[in-house]
Write a structure and sequence with these properties.
Layout: H1 5-28, H2 39-53, H3 69-107, E1 113-115, E2 122-124, H4 125-140, H5 143-157, H6 167-208, H7 214-255
Antiparallel strand pairs: 1-2
Helix pairs in contact: 1-2, 1-3, 3-4, 3-6, 3-7, 5-7, 6-7
Length: about 260
């Protein structure tokens, strides 16, 4: 069995260019991009996903020399597309990190921080708890499989071409930052309102009975009631996750579907 140089070039390109988009998404998306996942493991995951997805793509690669200038331009565009898709999903998880930071500041636990393995930065313990909770719920809802489905669809709606994403997609991507902060506030809003009422009650108590020290009573009670409020509002947080994950996955679909 013999292959011509054109056939070999087409075979290499059909797997190489989709691989760069898949690898960029794996490097940027939450869960896969965690510091606990080694670079070698991410590479193996990207190769395995490429082997599964590439045969399902109608037109996997254009007739372009892989090592030519146009081929390198396609590589750059595929990396940008995959990184943007992973970054948008990262905004979903960061919304819950922001919610945990706001709740921690209201509880007086803003100083209690630990290293976030997802991003490698120091975040409050409450944010870390919300991140672990959201990750487990996201996996239990097969969110990672839906992400791979969206990735496979992206090769149909936005095939491998030298053009890449339109400039309007980058504008929409930047606009999602406001969505992240708004989503974080929505998740934290029940706890913010409840803890504000607790602090207000202790403020009135300290004015009515000055001999009661607000630091000796109010501070530990705020922490205890804060944990109780978090326990009560966890079902609401999971419901918000389902809604926001659906919204974000639809946004990712629109990102790689320039024609709407």
């Amino acid at each position: 069995m013999e292959f011509t140089s054109a056939e070999l070039t087409g075979l290499i390109g059909s797997y190489m260019w989709p691989f760069f988009r898949i690898a960029a998404l794996v490097m940027a998306a939450p869960i896969f991009s965690s510091n606990f996942v080694t670079v070698r493991s991410r590479l193996l995951i990207a190769i395995a996903i490429s082997i599964v997805i590439v045969p399902t793509i109608p037109v996997a690669a254009p007739a372009v020399e892989p090592l030519s200038g146009a081929g390198l331009l396609i590589v750059a565009h595929q990396i940008i597309i995959g990184a943007c898709m992973g970054f948008m999903l990262q905004l979903l998880f960061n919304a819950f990190i922001i919610a945990g930071q706001v709740i921690a500041m209201q509880m007086g636990l803003g100083f209690a921080s630990m290293i976030d393995p997802q991003n490698g930065v120091s975040v409050p313990v409450i944010s870390q708890f919300y991140l672990i909770f959201v990750t487990l719920v996201f996996i239990s809802l097969d969110g990672h499989l839906i992400l791979l489905q969206v990735l496979a669809e992206s090769f149909i709606t936005l095939p491998v071409l030298p053009t890449g994403l339109p400039h309007t997609s980058f504008r929409d991507l930047v606009a999602q930052a406001s969505w992240m902060y708004a989503a974080g506030v929505i998740v934290a809003l029940p706890a913010i309102g409840s803890l504000m009422m607790v602090n207000l009650a202790f403020g009135i108590l300290s004015r009515a009975a000055p001999q009661i020290s607000p630091f000796s009573i109010g501070f530990p009670m705020t922490i205890i009631l804060g944990f109780a409020i978090i326990l009560v509002t966890l079902p609401t947080a999971s419901a918000h996750l389902v809604t926001m994950a659906d919204q974000m996955l639809q946004m990712i679909r629109l990102l790689v579907h320039p024609n709407g």
